[in-house]
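Before surveying the methods themselves, we first show a specimen of the format, giving the amino acid sequence and backbone structure tokens:

:::
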Amino acid sequence: MKKIKLFLLSMIVLTATSFAQEKSAGWAEMKAFHTLMAATFHPSEDGDLKPLKEKAADLLTAAKTWQASTIPADYKPEETSSTLKKLVVQCAAIDKAVKAGKSDEDLKKMIADAHDIFHKVAGECKKGADEHEGHKH
């Protein structure tokens, strides 16, 4: 009975998630990257680099997956593509720095830079984003 309830709950969540994604017409790869960015960047602001150290490789994978995805029509293609390339390069540098045992201060600056690049894609690369310039997360 417990397995059936768990299965039904899972199906409800998946259906609701699928419906919400279709309704919002969001960019799933961007949302997946943002989830990892939030889980690594925000703790770093408080000096907690452990999540970044544990998830640096996942962050790089998510950035590559996002870069390889189709750019939605409401984004500027050239600017989005070049900015995503910068994001992948930055996430690769973070992953390499984590593996090399770089200092927390270095990692904190690197993830902040990646966060800024993320926001450029999410904001400035969107068509009609000119009126939203200056927005900070």
About this structure: The chain has one domain: 27-132. Helices lie at 2-24, 28-45, 50-68, 77-99, 104-124.
